[in-house]
Amino acid sequence: MDKRMSIDEVVEAIPSGATVAIGGSSISRKPMALVRALARSDKRDLTVIVDVGGPDVDLLLGTGRVRRVIYAFVGFEVLGLAPHFRRARQQNLAEFEEWTEYTVMAGLDATIKRVPFMPTHATLGTDVLKVNRSFKEMQDPFGGETLVAVPALAPDVALIHVNYADVQGNGVILGDGHVDVLCAKAAQATYMSCERILSSAELQRFGRDVQILRVYSKGVVEIPWGAHPTGCAPDYRTDLRHLEDYLKAAQSEEGWRRYESEFVDVDHRQYLANHGGPEELVSRLKV
Question: Which helix (H) or strand (E) holds 70?
Fold first, then answer.
């Protein structure tokens, strides 16, 4: 079955009000081309689930697409805080649920296992139980031990970026898979962007690196540089220069409008052209 789609077709398949899980981690292998397309769409009131968020969550908040965020962390690593996330958090412009990295994984795993919650020792003795009322202390019915019940997280859609894929929807992730496999398995519909589509025979050469199986994916989009400005190891590094420009632009309304015009409200081909083209990115970011 040929599952190739366009960026616009993926966005069209995501309704307003959907719960969207986003793969990658912080400034690493985020499906940014898909996120930018979602940011410039008319979709509204999204719930975003991330383990470790970065420019993906920040951009969607900055363009007014998000109603609720379920997260363990959102930031720009060595570059500092996420400006739109911070502003929205401080001014109560959206709803925020603070989880931990493990509990996000446990919530997704509960959906995969088709149970309403996952019991864990995580968060016991911490203030997470004070700030997140979704978690409930419970007693082990067999031994009486105190545990925490983490509710299932059930995304309508998962968006992930992989190094390579085939037309059937198998995906290769080289290096750390982060929570992408959990997102893909838990979501009702998973859409992948990839650096390059290969034949199924070529893909099988990657063995265990074929981390996303076709039974979990609904569509695949070939988008070279689709994770930019986040990195996609080993293909290219994180574009710290672009992220610094992003953070500077977000300091003022005028600067942000200019950024949106140049890097959000354009298709992916123009986005690359506005960086000087793929050749310029290769010269700066190829490992």
Answer: strand 66-71
* 66 has a pLDDT exceeding 90: yes
Q: Which tokens is 103 given?
A: 């509990």
Q: Is the pTM of this model over 0.85?
A: yes
How many CB atoms neighbour CB 165 within 10 A?
30
Does an H or E element contain 174, and which?
Answer: none
- What domains, with CATH codes, occur in the chain? 7-98+154-242 (3.40.1080.10)
Beta strands in 202-245 (DSSP E): 210-212, 219-222
**CA dist list (Å): 160 to 8, 97, 284:** 16, 22, 24
Take residue 229 and report the two structure tokens written for it: 């400005």
What is the per-residue pLDDT across 72-92, written as a single tens digit (0 to 9) for each? Answer: 999 999 999 999 999 999 999
Query: Are 129 and 99 spatial neighbours (Cβ–Cβ below 8 Å)?
Result: no
Report residue 213 as tokens: 């199986």
User: Using an 8 Å Cβ cutoff, are 136 and 148 in contact?
Assistant: yes
Burial label, 103 (beta-carbon count in 10 A; 0-12, 13-18, 19+): buried
CA distances from 146 to 101, 125, 128, 186 (A): 21, 11, 16, 27
pLDDT at 287 over 80: no
